[in-house]
Amino acid sequence: xxxxxxxxxxxxxxxxxxxxxxxxxxxxxxxxxxxxxxxxxxxxxxxxxxxxxxxxxxxxxxxxxxxxxxxxxxxxxxxxxxxxxxxxxxxxxxxxxxxxxxxxxxxxxxxxxxxxxxxxxxxxxxxxxxxxxxxxx
Length: 137
Hints:
10 strands, about 50% strand, single chain, two-stranded antiparallel sheet
């Protein structure tokens, strides 16, 4: 299967903002860009967008770690496939739970589909790092 390293718009958005994430001093949000092997996360005060190998997702609520750096949020996970998306093709989107822990510039993030209780995986991300994501062609 052919795969491409990082989708171009996502890659350039991260390049321009590299090193921009930081824990807010006015609240618990983790706004900024996070990258790791097989994942990229762009966090805003309202949620996040996620890029994975051959998939993407959303986190539809703020990431608000507790005093121990732990958080849980709901969102979506959409599987992708190689080749073109056919006209009228329904997206393979599932509700997902994102659970994580942040310690300094590092984040561990576990993704689970809530409709099938299927674990997608646990990822390690670093604040300001570029993602290493392969997109299906």
